[in-house]
Amino acid sequence: DKEVRAIFLRLFAQLFQGYRSCLQLIRIHAEPVIHFHKAAFLGQRGLIENDFLTKVLNGMAFAGFVSERGPPFRTCDLFDELVAFEVERIKAEEGNPPKMIKHVRELAEQLFKNENPNPHMAFQKVPRPTEGSHLRVHILPFPRINEGRVQELLQEGLARAQGAPPATRGDKKCVVPAGPPVGMFMSA
Question: How many structural domains comprise the chain?
Answer without folding.
Answer: 1
